[in-house]
Amino acid sequence: MKLIVMVMTMMMISEGSMIDQTCKQTPDFKLCVSLLNSDPRGSSADISGLALILIDKIKVLATKTLTEINGLYKKRPELKQALDQCSRRYKTILNADVPEAIEAISKGVPKFGEDGVIDAGVEASVCEEGFQGKSPLTSLTKSMQNISSVTRAVVRMLL
Fold this sequence. Notes:
mainly alpha; Butyryl-CoA Dehydrogenase, subunit A, domain 3; signal; Cell wall / vacuolar inhibitor of fructosidase 1-like; C/VIF1
């Protein structure tokens, strides 16, 4: 019984250390660990699996941001032009960048996965710039940029 407990403890340590070791190589260790630990797949994932989890987080955030944009049309009609641009940008993240990244990582061609992840951060930045300093989406935009940056670092480990 004691041996089983020791083996289980060692497995937990090594699983946790995979996330820790990976996240130490990213620009935001705390964000990385938080994102990966919040997904049950993280504890048993290899680096490709961790990258896919992070890409899923980009998808979730893009979906949340699109929902927020749709709600802002009624509350802030004066921002219609900027909101239209942001809507297009976030739809690009969901319909092009995320699928490209998932397919590339799944097929073992991480370079194309990196391109999709980088583009997600760029799309968010361009959205933000469209408000000329008065964006109601700043916190979501910054989150997308941060998640994209962390995800890119993990995808680069596969190159």
